[in-house]
Specification:
The complex is a heterodimer of chains A (336) and B (341). Chain A has 336 residues and is mainly α. Helices cover 71% and strands 1% of the residues of chain A. In chain A, strands 1-2 form a two-stranded antiparallel sheet. Chain A is globular, with a radius of gyration of 26 Å. Classes of the chains: A mainly alpha (336), B mainly alpha (341).
Chain lengths: 336, 341
């Protein structure tokens, strides 16, 4: 736990605030997603209550605090359930791409050879290709293959986009770590390859993954919404999806109806901002070129009468040295 | 060191694009042809008799071994023969010619807006780190990056288009579409109208560009702000900048003459990446504004499940991405002599 919190403790000033705001926002969305059934007054595909249809495109007011959209859905309930869909898809895709990307990257970086070269080629090409286009092409293919499972096919098309990002980072760090002294030492004491990869390389290579992970999650939320907007994502009866609702709302805009699109849109912006803030904060503390550390307080010795100077100076300098040592150790990797 | 001449570097870089193109095309082929499912049945199955479908299959050569299809695909791409669409029998090349211009002017306009807004803002923010304006600009950068294009489009249509009387749909008014677009010389409407000397039409088309370009530009603007800010901050910590400061040069001049140029080098690389990422954003912008570009066409053929149409347009995008990367690298070499060696 302490190790987990360490990056947060190391932050200072603005970076800490940025991260804190991000964490609060994301935490809120997670709560909303988990307890959607209790928060939302209606179901995400409910169009009537007690046999009475909701009023089409009713403005925000009593009964429907955010209004009703053009498909007779209650917008507040759609926004709440949308959080669940978004987090489900993104979590699934990030975990999948993380596992595949990290394992492939480790293996390629450590083993090398022609498999490595081919995969690097393939991953580079996928990385160079505009990510949204890649996701579009994939969901086009998947929608032909698997019908009805909107959430899984959406998650899979996002997974494909993010595998290369982990792969590249992990492979490159593995490649440079492979020749490091500690790996050589492990090899010298007879550690099998599996141990070297799993224990020594993995823990060192994984360092940069949290930053990429949160930034990818932010990206994944917008990409999912983009797919939904283009009509490639999840269908409205299967689950509530913000992007799809926005695409419907675009037609309302011409007639001045703002509430159908405003709220799902704001939900996307807020969640993506929250995740980006966390990523940004993490980046600022973990990236040494950007990091600003708190300076250890310098305690000046009090002026003492001349006669005692020699003794006092010795004591004080020891004190300073000790306190400075503690500060530095507290602050992180910098050792005296 | 002496052999690092510029022409030689450019030649090298152009030669390097061949493997990249090769890989991109292979990926496109693998995605669209090797994936299970029959393109013809998917698009026109149910509407046509089995005989016609078999005929269409034979025409596309889908019965032949994959490796033959692959080689043919590669050869066709090299010779710019992207085939005819299944659903409406249009040569893909015509689609690219007729709709490419709209996508081109959209992306270029958006790019210009992003450069002229993003770079000065990033530079202004970096000048005083962690000050109030730095914080505000950074938040603006993050939020503009976090806002999906189609939401910006919606906000524009709701709150900007009406008061300013800006058009929100299409690239020109229907009447002008009729006069200018039916009589194309370059297939870029803006240029066509200028060539025809029809300045009323030119103004109308330009006005149609405002909202879409601004919407797409906002997306990359945030990235530019971040990149310029971070790189400038990093450069400002380097020794030579410190030395310039120590010589008593005014801080403003230090940034302008010493730090900014060097900080721009990595930004140019990112600009290149962003340019290709913009193709994805262009698809969204075009969908939001009924823009008659390639993205709209791509979505049209995706909805029609027309494999040839999708493959043709995606292939063209892949080629464009590869070309952009070359151009950016050459631009980088022109700015920064270190790259050439």
């Amino acid at each position: 736990m302490k190790r987990f919190l360490k990056p947060f403790q190391q932050t200072t000033g603005l970076a800490r605030w940025i991260m804190l705001i991000g964490i609060v926002i994301v935490f809120l969305f997670i709560i909303v997603a988990i307890f959607a059934d209790f928060i939302a007054p209606y179901g995400f595909n409910q169009v009537e209550v007690d046999g009475v249809r909701f009023v089409k495109q009713a403005p925000p007011g009593p009964g429907h605090i955010l209004g009703v959209n053009d498909q007779f859905y209650d917008i507040f309930s759609r926004v709440i359930y949308g959080a669940r869909t978004a987090l489900e898809v993104v979590l699934l895709s990030i975990i999948l791409s993380l596992v595949i990307g990290v394992v492939l990257g480790l293996l390629c970086g450590y083993v090398g050879g022609w498999v490595d070269r081919c995969l690097v080629f393939l991953m580079d090409a996928m990385y160079a290709f505009p990510s949204l286009l890649l996701a579009i092409v994939f969901s086009f293919l998947l929608s032909g293959l698997m019908k009805g499972s909107g959430i899984i096919s959406a998650a899979l098309s996002l997974t494909v986009v993010y595998i290369p990002r982990y792969f590249r980072v992990v492979r490159n760090t593995t490649l440079s770590a492979r020749e490091a002294t500690y790996v050589e030492a492990a090899r010298a004491i007879g550690a099998p390859n599996r141990t070297i990869m799993g224990r020594y390389l993995f823990t060192n290579v994984i360092q940069s993954v949290p930053v990429i992970g949160t930034l990818n999650a932010a990206d994944a939320i917008s990409t999912l919404a983009a797919l939904g907007f283009l009509g490639l994502g999840i269908q409205p009866i299967d689950a509530s999806e913000w992007g799809y609702d926005l695409s419907r709302a675009l037609d309302d805009a011409a007639s001045g109806i703002w509430w159908t699109g405003m709220f799902p849109g704001l939900a996307i912006v807020l969640l993506v901002t929250g995740l980006t803030l966390i990523g940004e904060g993490l980046n600022e503390t973990m990236n040494p070129t950007l990091r600003k550390r708190r300076f250890a307080a310098i305690v000046l010795p009090e002026r003492k009468p001349k006669a005692k100077v020699a003794v006092a100076a010795e004591v004080v300098t020891n004190d300073i040295a000790e306190s400075a040592y503690e500060e530095i150790v507290d602050d992180g990797e910098v050792k005296p | 060191m002496s052999n690092g001449s510029l022409p030689r570097y450019i030649l090298q870089r152009i030669l390097l694009v061949i493997p990249m193109m090769f890989i991109l095309l292979t990926v496109v082929f693998l995605l669209l042809r090797v994936a299970p499912g029959d393109p013809i049945t998917a698009s026109v199955g149910g509407k046509l008799s089995p005989e016609v479908i078999a005929q269409k299959r034979a025409l596309l050569g889908l019965e032949r071994p994959l490796i033959v299809q692959y080689l043919e695909y590669m050869w066709n791409t090299v010779t710019f023969n992207f085939g005819e669409t299944i659903t409406d029998n249009t040569p893909v090349l015509n689609i690219i010619r007729d709709n490419g211009g709209a996508t081109l002017t959209l992306t270029l306009g958006a790019f210009a807006i992003a450069v002229f807004v993003g770079i000065p803002l990033g530079r202004w923010a970096a000048r005083k780190r962690d000050s109030a304006r730095d914080t505000i600009i950074r938040i603006f950068g993050i939020v503009s990056f976090a806002t999906p294009i189609f939401f910006v489009a919606l906000l524009m249509q709701l709150f900007v288009a009406r008061p300013l009387g800006l058009p929100t749909s299409g690239i020109a008014s229907p009447k002008i579409m009729f006069t200018v677009a039916t009589n194309p010389t370059t297939h870029v409407l803006l240029i066509d109208s200028a060539i025809q000397g029809d300045w009323g039409a030119f103004g109308d088309i330009l006005l149609h560009h405002v909202l879409p370009c601004f919407t797409l530009g906002m997306m990359i603007c945030g990235v530019f702000i971040r990149m310029v800010r971070v790189n400038l901050l990093q450069t400002m910590q380097s020794d030579y900048v410190e030395a310039a400061r120590a010589r008593g040069i005014h801080e403003r001049r230090v940034i302008k003459k010493h730090a900014f140029r060097n900080a721009l080098v990595p930004v140019v690389t990112v600009i290149g990446l962003e340019l290709s990422m913009m193709l994805g954003g262009a698809v969204l912008t075009e969908s939001s504004f009924n823009w008659p570009g390639l993205g709209t066409k791509l979505m049209h053929y995706i909805m029609a499940r027309d494999y040839v149409g999708v493959q043709g347009i995606v292939t063209f995008f892949a080629v464009a991405v590869a070309l952009i990367s070359v151009i950016v690298d050459i631009a980088n070499a022109l700015i920064d002599p270190r790259v050439r060696f």
